[in-house]
Amino acid sequence: MSLNTEEKQKLINEHQIHATDTGSVEVQVAMLSERITKLSGHLQNNNHDFSSRQGLLKMIGQRKRLLNFVRDKSEKRYTDLIKKLGIRG
Question: What's this model's pTM, rounded to 2 decimal places?
């Protein structure tokens, strides 16, 4: 359910703003979205895994807070990020 090193590096390369960027909001949201996708698939097969479900809800809340932060800073960055990740609609 966690991301391996190659997946993380691929996400960082796709969403980084500059060459040494590893922690911008865009990168964090991309990583959270990938983890949410993987965990959602796990929970479809394991209905009674309540601790993972709780972790999923925490990740969704964290992603929502980060997206709200981006939207407050720049509407264009927010819409670009949403389109690039294919979430919200």
Answer: 0.91
